[in-house]
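User: quick one
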Amino acid sequence: MLAEIITIGDEILIGQIIDSNSAWMAQQLNAAGIRVKQISSVSDNRKHILTAIKEASERADVILITGGLGPTKDDITKTTLAEYFKVGMKRDQETLDNVARIFARFNRPLLDVNIRQADVPENCEVLLNKNGTAPGMWFQENGKVYVSMPGVPHEMMYLMEDLVLPKLKASFNLPKIWHQTILTVGEGESFLAERIADIEDQLPPQIKLAYLPKLGTVRLRLSAYGDDEEKMQQELALQTKKLTERLGSTVAATEDIPLEKAILLLMAKNKQTLSLAESCTGGYIAHLFTSQPGASSVFVGGAVSYSYEMKEKMLGVNSDTLWETGAVSEETVREMVEGALRNFSSDYAIAVTGIAGPDGGTPEKPVGTVWIGVARKDKTIAKKYVFGNKRIQNIERTAITAMGDLLKLLREPIA
Amino acid sequence: MLAEIITIGDEILIGQIIDSNSAWMAQQLNAAGIRVKQISSVSDNRKHILTAIKEASERADVILITGGLGPTKDDITKTTLAEYFKVGMKRDQETLDNVARIFARFNRPLLDVNIRQADVPENCEVLLNKNGTAPGMWFQENGKVYVSMPGVPHEMMYLMEDLVLPKLKASFNLPKIWHQTILTVGEGESFLAERIADIEDQLPPQIKLAYLPKLGTVRLRLSAYGDDEEKMQQELALQTKKLTERLGSTVAATEDIPLEKAILLLMAKNKQTLSLAESCTGGYIAHLFTSQPGASSVFVGGAVSYSYEMKEKMLGVNSDTLWETGAVSEETVREMVEGALRNFSSDYAIAVTGIAGPDGGTPEKPVGTVWIGVARKDKTIAKKYVFGNKRIQNIERTAITAMGDLLKLLREPIA
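Assistant: Done. Structure below.
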């Protein structure tokens, strides 16, 4: 089963926005056993949209279209779809009620352009958009499915999860696939592959293993293809157990979540708290943790100590240590992480100090040199890393590595 | 002049990576007067790649292709291009020397697969990739240009900036366009449009104005089309002056930079320092500032004070204030921002405290309620905002708004 994604609108073509919708949709489709053949971004142009839909329909069974559903005259997706299917337009009462309800809630007058949001091609089945005024639309013709959705991410996501994916599963005889993700941190793809080579070789034929590497983490995704759900789930559980036992402390989670969430869940379960002392990451680690809902049950806060003075004042780092060993040194990172533990009264702390670049490097400490410290009452561990010469990558790499180091300490029995 | 972008590789189609390359390329092309007609992501499949290139060449004059140039057997872009142009392969000596140099630098043996990176279609002109082993390739056929580049962002960016764009400008009679961007913050697109309506109406015909809104900021982009560079630059400068005078303190910069960079530049020029006290943004504002190279000349550091205790300890917020007025209140944000100013000895400070969601809202203080404080020695300004109900958007919106508030204060004469 093949799908194509078409995004309509000039914002992507002029580079004003990055198309993150399509990646999300592709993930969802792949997880449901639908392979994405092509993703195309086209302009708000009638002929161009018609061509793109026709080309996609020649390659795929499902064509998912986003964008071009706003109330302005640029937005021509609906009328172009009517032209494609050679049908007229109808006014959909449920959509009109939805639009009226949304306008009433915000005390805004309902203008003609807004009423026209309820006009849809005659042959479509409306997918009610509870989060916005533009309706989703489902078309079925010659055994192919066409779906039109708004380009606003949360509206599209809601429609996909609640309506489109279930309808696709009901409409097509999709392969039944179950997934299990193992999140690992701190080891490269080839190293992991070597460690689990024999397990991978002995996987039963209905189980596939994929490596999905991303900046210091690798996701191992097991996919089970078959009809007997119970049997497939048992098989997945068995292989997951084998892999996690083999990979030991490299494993951060056995579900598809980011590393920061895995840490928050583990620490919340154990009623542990965390604080941070960030220098070269400049608040990025705090940002990762606090992007997760409910972070406050674990994360108490942190210091972004960019200057020497801040390292002394907020973390109690010794002035002599700074001036004698430098801000990027084992001694400093140890004092930083122990200072955070003490001053911020948390069970665990992370400290990082390094040279993110592009300036500030020296022959002894080139750009990319980073010291990471993790600590709890009975133990402090400090390690030196040398990453690359790109500032943003150094920041991201340091953050992931520091979380990996914390995870290892979390797993060690308390003395 | 029309271009199309084709990205090759399964990573985008399975949703593993988001295609940010294409947005960047589209920006560069648009700035050079080349309109992007379509962006397509296709799989590592010979027939599919051939079809995609053929379709693109029927619509556009320039076809930019990224990806599929690695050393593994999945990477078939080069041989497929040779098939498309009906030519054989040749070994390029300059590329081979480059590959050998890179392997020597890392003390790695040069394997057969690596040597084959120097094989390219016979009809191509090699664009030497100084940042990696995969060469860029330039093809010219029937008046159309085809360019193949690696998908690794910094390799592609370097090739585009240093080689591809200059060659495109030399090969085609491109419209001459000059741009001037005005970055505004704190006002919506329609409000700005109303304020400058008369200036916009009187723009000379060779000057176009575009509104590029994004999360609390709006970029006004003036584009001048013409042959006489000096005259066009004068016209741009004149219109920029009119617009910035009219828009006053809304204007953050007259170049195309992010708001945080505009603030850092302004403060660096005035030798001012900045500290932060972040609660609901959880380090995100610090992260924005510290993502900019050289941030340390202005930014001394900050507190991410998630808990009551951290607000008291790091910022000296009064325990009574917290318990009587709550963490999200005018009183608290004032004490936070003045505490930052005092404890971190900076000239300016920003403090934010709010309810990012999804939990923690009350009828009086719903999710999205945020207090923002900005301060310097002679003045503290605190304002309340009510944003939406999405955590990530609330964090981002708060950060941009707080920077906008700081900018206003930076512009006020010191008492």
